Amino acid sequence: MLVDSHVNLHGERYAEDLEDVLARAAEAGVGAMLAISDHLGSTDEIAGIVAGRRNLWRTVGVHPHWAKDAADLTPERLVALAEADDVVAIGECGLDRHYEYSGFEDQERVFRAHVRAAQRTGLPLVIHAREADAEMEAILTEMHEEAPFTPLLHCYTGGPGLMQAALKRGGYVSVSGIVTFKTADAVRETARRVPLDRLLLETDCPFLSPVPHRGRRNEPAYLPLVAQKVAEVRGVSVGEIEAATTENFFRLFSKAKLSA
């Protein structure tokens, strides 16, 4: 099976047909998913979506776009939220200089709270880094020296420097549908270079639909298109990518257990 390591199932985009979306994912061979938190106000809704489903888990965290609304976030708050059995990671969190919807000082302050929560819980840290490679690498280096944590660079579009910094610290890199875009040569190079035992796949749905669905709502059923392109650029079989990325997911998110 395939595992979608980053789905955004809450909110209005799937409000009318979520069950159909999940059924299509199962039919496409996507056997498990990680539902991502964008801000703490979404926590209850995401928990409700995941509840009772044997193959869905969730994260707790605040996207850098919303850091301005969580400037007083503490590691203790995140640690408490992460005690739930279905929470298997901290995040999505990070730094974004492309949009900078939140001031960079707020982004950095909130990101550091997430890192400390990951250090204290031992849970992986799902990282959003856009046009902030140098700043992100500096913080990862500094804080990993204080106490270890495992970073996941989600939907990675950055350069080799930050990628290598994360890998050096036991991290992982996730590739999205961007790998299918005509002009995404840098992302395809990332997909080639990431060690196979550190590679994950994601849709980041409802965003970033892979070709030929680009421009329409994305959904987990399209993950095989990502796997196919990654297999193509690496010169291996789709089955090899499927097996490796699924194994990697459950190694990284070790709290995630498929129930009978």
Key phrases:
single chain, globular, 260 residues, 8-stranded parallel β-sheet, alpha/beta, TIM Barrel
How would you characterize the overall build of this protein?
Belongs to the metallo-dependent hydrolases superfamily. TatD-type hydrolase family. It comes from Parvularcula dongshanensis. A divalent metal cation 2 binds at residues 128, 154. Its EC number is 3.1.21.-. The structure is a single chain. The two termini are 15 Å apart. The chain contains nine helices and eight strands. The protein is an alpha/beta fold. α3 crosses α4 (104-121), α5 runs parallel beside α6 (160-168) and α8 (223-234) crosses α9. It has one domain: TIM Barrel (Alpha-Beta Barrel). Strands 1-2-3-4-5-6-7-8 form an eight-stranded parallel sheet. Helix content is 39%, strand content 17%.
Which helices and strands, and how do they pair?
Blueprint: E1 2-7, H1 18-27, E2 30-35, H2 43-50, E3 56-60, H3 75-81, E4 87-96, H4 104-121, E5 125-130, H5 133-146, E6 151-153, H6 160-168, E7 172-175, H7 185-193, E8 199-201, H8 223-234, H9 238-252
Parallel strand pairs: 1-2, 2-3, 3-4, 4-5, 5-6, 6-7, 7-8
**Rg over CA atoms:** 17 Å
Query: If you average the pLDDT, what whole number results?
Result: 97
Kindly state the number of beta strands: 8
Taken together, the total number of domains comes to 1
